[in-house]
Amino acid sequence: MAKTLEEEANGAVVYQITDDPLEKSNIYCEQPYCSADSRVFVYERQNPKLGPNYNEYVTCEFGTWKSEVIGQGLRAPGMSHTGIFYYRHVREGKCLELRRVDLATGEWEVIFEFPEDFQHRGMDTVSPDERYYAYGVTLSLEPQMFGIELLDLKTGTRDLIHTDPDICNPHTQFEPTWGKQIMVQHNRGCKVLPDGTRAIIFGEQGATEFLLDIPSGKVTRLQVGEPYTPSIVGHEAWIAGTNEILLTVRAPNARGLHSPEEWYFAEGDYTPEKGNLLGVKAGGPPRIVSRGYRFNHLGTSPCGRYFFADDWQGSGKLILGSIQTGKNAVVCDARTSILVKKAHPHAYASPDMRWLVFTSDLSGQPQIHVASIPPDLVSGLN
After folding, report:
1. DSSP secondary structure, 315-355, as one string
2. Secondary element (H or E) of residue 98
3. Has residue 292 been placed in a domain?
4. Is the pLDDT score of 49 beyond 50?
5. Which of 60, 179, 286, 327 would be 127's cystine partner, CB 3.0–4.6 Å?
6. What are 134-170's pLDDT values in tens digits?
7. Are 249 and 276 in contact (CB under 8 A)?
8. Are 224 and 249 contacting, i.e. CB atoms less than 8 angstroms apart?
C-alpha cells in the first residue's frame, strides 16, 4: 500500500508506492511509461511463479495509487510517446505474441506472433505512426554477431536491416515525431559469453551512437564518443520535434559500478561544471545542454521541452531541466544505493510534468516511488 515518506523543502511530496518483497522495476527512464493523459504509469515485477525473465506488468493510477495487473511478458517492453505499451507474451509451445496496450483505456490486442525461439536483444521501439517495430536480435555468439530487425506491422514482414558485432545492447529508439530513423547504441569492443552474458560492456574505444534510416537501414554516424568526446555513458533519448538526441558522456572524478565490471569516468573537458549532458544531431558537433551535475540516466518529455536525469554521486539527486534554457532543479533525492544496479533511480516525469516516477531501495530493497513535482519548479525552468 502506498505511503507518504516525506515532503521536500521545495514542496515535492515523496510516496513509496510498493512494499512487497517481489523484485520490481519502473522499467527505464528514457521516456515516460505513462498513459498520454498522465492518469497512470506502468511498472514491472517478477513473480517467482512465472519463471526468470518473465514479468507481470502493473498499471498504477497517480494520486489514488490504485494498481492493476495488465499482462505478463518478457522483459524489454516497448513504449510510445502516445501512451501505447507493447510487450511479448509467451504462449508455450506456440509463439511469442506481441501485444499492444492502450494505457489510457487498458484495452489490448495481439498485433503479431513471433516464433517461440525468437532471439530478441535490447529494447523495443515503435514508429510514431505504429507502422514499424524495431529491436535487436542475436545472430551468433561464436562468432559474435548481432543485428537490428525491422517488423512491418502493416505487411507482417521482418527484415534484418543492419548487422554488427558490437551492438550487444542496442537501445533502439525511433525518432518520435517523424519516425524516419532509429538510434542505435554502439558498444565498441564489447564481449559476450557463449551463454549470452555480457562480459565486457565496451572496450578502449568506448561507446557511441549511430542512426539507421527506415526502412533502408542506411547508417549515419554521430560525432559523440571517441574521438570527438569521452565515451557516452549509455543513456540517451530523442528530443521530440528536433532530430536531436540527448545523451550523457563520461565526466571526471567519479567512480561507479556498471555491471558486470567496475569502470571509471574518463578525464576530459566534460566536468559537471562544464556539462556532460549533450545534444547531438547528424552532421554536426554536440552542444552542452545543461551543467552542474554528473548526469547519468536520463530521459525526455514527449513535448520535447524537458529532460529528467539523476546525479551520479551521493544517493542520486533527481533533476528536471529545460532543454531550451539549460536551467535545472532538484525535485528530490532518490535516497538509494546508487551503485546497486537494481536500485538505479531511472526517474521519469509524467507527460503533464506533475509526477516523477523512480526506484529506490531506501526501505532495504528496490521499490517503486513517486514524487509530486511543484508547478513553480517547472515554471522556473523556462
Report:
1. T-EEEEEETTT--EEEEEE--S-TTSGGG----EE-TTSSE
2. strand 95-102
3. yes
4. yes
5. 179
6. 999 999 999 999 999 999 999 999 999 999 999 999 9
7. yes
8. yes
